[in-house]
Amino acid sequence: AQSVTQPDIHITVSEGASLELRCNYSYGATPYLFWYVQSPGQGLQLLLKYFSGDTLVQGIKGFEAEFKRSQSSFNLRKPSVHWSDAAEYFCAVAPSYNTDKLIFGTGTRLQVFP
Amino acid sequence: KAGVTQTPRYLIKTRGQQVTLSCSPISGHRSVSWYQQTPGQGLQFLFEYFSETQRNKGNFPGRFSGRQFSNSRSEMNVSTLELGDSALYLCASSRGGGVNTEAFFGQGTRLTVV
Q1: pLDDT digits (tens, 9 = 90+) for A62-100
Q2: Which end of chain B is more exposed for a tag (fewer CB within 10 A), N or C?
Q3: Nearest residue of chain B to residue A39 (CA atoms)
């Protein structure tokens, strides 16, 4: 069965520092991968997604992610973190193309210090 | 345009009662998915509806049910509530084209079972 692992439950960074959030997936075929962000009291917002093609994907709010098939990873990065980036981040995989169903990782809570 | 609207935002129920949650999708969207979010289990897929038909179902007991109306609005029902049903219930809507169409999430309904 498809699954997603986010090894880091909580990450703390200083404002202006670079960020990398890890995501590993388990899936036999080409995965459909997503990163979502959830601010306190809010729903989820899509940051970026990968289906095929260029393995480096650009998203909103200055985020990017790199798909590495050899490592089964889809890590999220940002060169310089802003205080407003403090939130919970979820990696997700879609088990098939013709569905909206998503399998989420357990999330990484990002704390940003000034 | 208006986003995904979930009502009510907060709900307190007693064990053994039943509850109905509502989700109004973005205009023109035909697919609605439901998720349960808890600190222990994270985000778990409940079900997905497309054009009034259940397209996918997660691994939840039969106490959890849902439906979609002809105007794409969706409801989910939980009968015989248990303490463990306390959670944030999120719904997402999309145009229904599968992973190629973005799903937009509502802010959720926070259900507390006492």
Answers
A1: 999 999 999 999 999 999 999 999 999 999 999 888 888
A2: N
A3: B107
C-beta of residue A75 within 8 angstroms of C-beta of residue B75: no
> How far apart are the C-alpha atoms of B16 and B102, rounded to whole Å?
36
Q: Are strands A108-113 and A10-14 parallel, antiparallel or unpaired?
A: parallel
Separation CA A84–CA A32 (nearest Å)? 27
Which pLDDT tens digit goes with each residue over A2-31?
A: 899 999 999 999 999 999 999 999 976 778
Taking any CB pair shorter than 8 Å as contact, residues of chain B touching chain A are 4, 31, 33, 35, 42-45, 48, 50, 55-56, 58, 90, 92, 94, 96, 98-103, 105-108
Per CB-CB distance under 8 Å, the chain A contacts of B56 are 99-101
**B63 DSSP assignment:** T
Contact B105 A45 (CB under 8 A): yes
Strand partners, B12: B112
Q: Is any Cβ of chain B less than 8 angstroms from the Cβ of A109?
A: no
CA dihedral A55, A91, A59, B90 (to 10 degrees): 150
